[in-house]
Design a protein that fits this description.
With 342 residues, the chain is an alpha+beta fold. 44% of the residues lie in helices and 18% in strands. The chain has twelve helices and ten strands. It has helices at 6-22, 28-34, 41-53, 70-80, 88-101, 107-122, 175-189, 199-203, 213-227, 251-261, 264-270, 321-340, and strands spanning 57-58, 67-68, 125-129, 138-145, 150-157, 162-168, 234-237, 279-282, 294-303, 306-316. The strands form three sheets. Strands 7-3-10-9-8 form a five-stranded antiparallel β-sheet, sandwiched between helices. A three-stranded antiparallel β-sheet has the order 4-5-6. A hairpin with a 2-residue loop joins strand 9 (294-303) and strand 10 (306-316). The chain is elongated and about 95 Å long.
Length: 342
């Protein structure tokens, strides 16, 4: 902030605010007229020229006004942005939506509905990185007999995940032995994350179980197999919203984004949780070339201070940052409360 006087900051805020809402280059007369600054158009023009020289504004054409640069947006987000309060109607809408979400018991159901809410409230593209199965904590193992020879193994985690697979039961197995094995495994695995259930760790449990080793081996192999099931799942909402932005009327730009929206692994990289809660990445701060002309606001939803997945809003760098950040904060509060109640 050392190179920007208070006057320059006021003018930069006005340029960014105007450009966000009009998508048109901003001239000095526009700033003077709309933002009631006690400055002449000539003074404002000189200050804008200085801001351009400092890298905060750019001039797309010689005869045009200025638009914010990536550096200008970053300064605006970090130092000048005003938070936009949600309207009563928006607050009531969120309350109704989350009243319905409280009835859902699986985290993927919750985030799939949330992605639609984000898109509708922001008018940008919304993305949700589903909760990572490997980051959830083992809660309980159950074995449900299907018939005399088969049973269903059910694995539950603290984040609401349920995984199940069928296995064959030893013919001589009685219900007491089965209950003992399940009780032992539940005691030994409690509190461990799924990614910690390596085959080596699981095999070490066999030493204390002398009976029905065939069944134990099957159980441990199934648990290890389940622990490796962690394909990246990204849910999208409002992809058509990108067409509303003049920046993406270029078919080539929009085509690259459409291709990206079909690649869960790439989107997973884009949404990889960052330290420090809510994050705003602008333009080339994003890790993928396809979104180098976009901004991405992300936040991780948590369970006991442990990140499970990430919500994101993707739009042009001319994003209404103040509104998006407030919407994200409100939704994150509600999502975190829901996850704790699963």
């Amino acid at each position: 902030m050392k190179d920007l006087s208070e006057r320059k900051q006021r003018i930069l805020r006005a340029v960014v605010t105007d450009y966000i809402h009009t998508a048109e280059p901003v001239g000095s007369r526009t700033i003077s007229r709309r933002y009631h600054m006690d400055l002449s158009a000539a003074t404002i023009r000189n200050e804008m020229a200085d801001l351009e020289e400092l890298g905060y504004l750019t001039q797309p054409h010689t005869s045009a006004g200025r638009i914010p640069s990536q550096r200008g947006y970053r300064f605006y987000v970090d130092c000048l942005m005003d938070m936009v309060e949600l309207t009563t109607a928006e607050e009531n809408y969120l309350a109704r939506v989350f009243l319905q979400l409280e009835k859902m018991r699986e985290i993927d159901q919750i985030v799939q509905h949330t992605v639609k809410v984000l898109a509708q409230m922001t008018n940008y593209v919304s993305l949700v990185l589903g909760a990572q199965f490997k980051r959830s904590v083992f809660k309980q193992l159950r074995i449900i007999p299907l018939d005399a020879e088969r049973a269903l193994v059910v694995l539950l985690t603290d984040s609401g995940y349920v995984r199940s697979k069928a296995l064959e039961l030893p013919k001589a197995l009685n219900s007491e032995e089965l209950a003992r094995i399940v009780k032992y495994l539940n005691e030994q695995l409690a509190g461990q994350t799924i990614e910690e259930l390596t085959l080596l760790r699981l095999q070490g449990l066999c030493r204390s179980l002398y009976a029905k080793i065939d069944l134990v081996d099957q159980l441990l192999l199934l648990l290890e197999e389940m622990s490796r099931e962690d394909s990246t799942r990204v849910f999208l909402g409002g992809t058509a919203n990108i067409l509303k932005q003049p920046e993406f009327r270029d078919v080539e730009k929009f085509g690259h984004l459409l291709e990206l929206f079909e690649q869960d692994e790439a989107l997973g990289i884009l949404l990889e949780p960052l330290q420090g809660g809510l994050s705003v990445r602008i333009g080339t701060e994003n890790p993928l070339q396809e979104v180098s002309e976009c901004s991405l606001v992300t936040a991780s939803y948590m369970l006991y201070d442990r990140p499970l997945g990430t919500l994101g809003v993707l739009g042009p760098t001319r994003m209404d940052y103040g509104k998006v950040v407030v919407i994200m904060q409100r939704i994150m509060e509600k999502i975190n409360a829901l996850v704790k109640g699963l």
